[in-house]
Write the C-alpha cells for this entry.
Amino acid sequence: MHDIGTRKRVLALVGQGRSLNSVSKETGISRAAIRSWQTRIDPSPRMRVSPCVRCRPAPSPPEDTAAYAYLLGLYLGDGCVSAHPRSGYYLRIACADAWPGLIDACEAAVRTINPAQRAYRVQAQGYVSVVGYSHHWPCLFPQYGPGKKHERSIVLDGWQREIVDAHPWEFIRGLVHSDGCRITNWTEKVIAGERRHYEYPRYFFSNLSPDIRQLFTDTLDKVGVDWKQPNTRNISVARKASVALMDVHVGPKH
C-alpha cells in the first residue's frame, strides 16, 4: 500500500508528460497501479467527467439552459431514454437524413447537456439517431419511464418549467424540429369569374401525447402565436403574423 502523498508525487511525474513506463521504472510502482490512481485520485482531462448538476447536494439546472430547452423539445418529440443492459442510459434522438443542419444542432445539444460531454451518430435507413450515453439522463429528463410517452403522463418539473419560461423559442424550435414542419399550402378561389391560385406558408406540429401538445400550445400562447387544432393530434399555425413570428425564431428545417 502507498500513502496518498506517494501517489500524488507519482501522478505529478506523469503530469510532466512522462510515460507510465518511465515513471514505473523510476518509482518501482506498476503501471496498472498508476493508471488506477489516475482515475481515482486525479483524473486526466480525457477521463474526467463533469458531475450531474441534478445529483449535487443542491441541484441546479444545466449550465446552458438554452441548449437544454432545445434538447427537451427534441426529446419530447422524437427522443427516448433507454436503460443500458449493464448500467447507465442511452438518450436517442431520431433525425431525418433530409435535414443535416438539424442533425448537427441536435448533436451539439446532446454533447452540451450530457455530463460526459459526448454524442455520436448511428445511421439507419432514412434517418440518423443522435446518441449520448450517461448514468444521469433520468435526472435530466424526469419524464423518462416505461412505455411510450403518449401512453403516460408528461409533466415538467418546476426547474424545467423555469427553463422553458426563460427560453420559450428554443423549446418550441426543438418540438418543431422533432415533430413539426413548415409547409406551403395552396388554394384556389373564383374571383370575378376568374379562378386564382393562392399559396401560403403554415407550421404544423403533430404528436399523439395530449400532454406534449398542451406544452407546445401553452408555450405558443406565451410568445403570442395564434394556433388551431384541426384534429386530435395536429396543431396548426397559419395566421400571417404568427407564421412570420415563427419564421423569425424557428424557421424551416434545414
